[in-house]
Recover the amino acids of this structure.
């Protein structure tokens, strides 16, 4: 199979997968391009064509993980720069503050599978294996953790769920926040 044939067959699925992880079209386009560059250069090494789709998604997942690693370094530098700015920006209350508080209040049985799946990027079956539990238990725990996070934002800062199932609202002032205060 040629790279062009792989593109025709899988680029839309890969793009949807990448956008679900990075939530930004421009970044997703860049990561898709990076993914297909790797596919193009390594396609000749794939010995079993029946594994092509999972191989492509593995490459995409690794591209996403590399992006997050690079992004975290940028965030650390940005945090370092913020420490040297004026006091008014130091006291700004952000979604990350609330998320940190909500995550720290999650029971460990939900927090651990969520971290392994959504932060480390492991497949849910890999998470289940690592935690010595069934796949259905792991899936339930991850879904429950996500619901608890959404509920935390609703309780903490008055967010609401819109008709599409997305959280909408604005972060409250820190003194009005039930989690960060």
């Amino acid at each position: 199979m040629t790279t062009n044939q792989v593109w025709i067959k899988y680029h839309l699925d890969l793009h949807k997968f990448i956008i679900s992880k990075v939530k930004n079209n421009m970044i997703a386009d860049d990561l898709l391009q990076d993914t297909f560059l790797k596919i193009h250069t390594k396609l000749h090494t794939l010995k079993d064509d029946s594994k092509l789709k999972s191989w492509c998604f593995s490459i995409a997942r690794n591209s996403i993980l590399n992006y997050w690693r690079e992004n975290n370094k940028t965030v650390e530098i940005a945090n370092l720069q913020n420490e040297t700015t004026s006091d008014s920006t130091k006291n700004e209350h952000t979604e990350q503050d609330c998320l940190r508080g909500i995550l720290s209040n999650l029971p460990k049985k939900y927090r651990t599978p969520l971290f392994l799946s959504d932060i480390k990027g492991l497949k849910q079956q890999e998470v289940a294996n690592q935690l010595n539990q069934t796949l259905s238990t792991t899936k339930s725990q991850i879904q429950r953790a996500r619901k608890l996070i959404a509920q935390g934002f609703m309780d903490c800062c008055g967010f609401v769920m819109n008709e599409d199932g997305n959280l909408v609202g604005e972060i409250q002032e820190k003194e009005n926040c039930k989690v960060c205060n």
User: Anything to note?
Assistant: Residues 73-90 have pLDDT under 50 and may be disordered. The first helix runs from residue 3 to 22. The first strand starts at residue 160 and ends at 161.
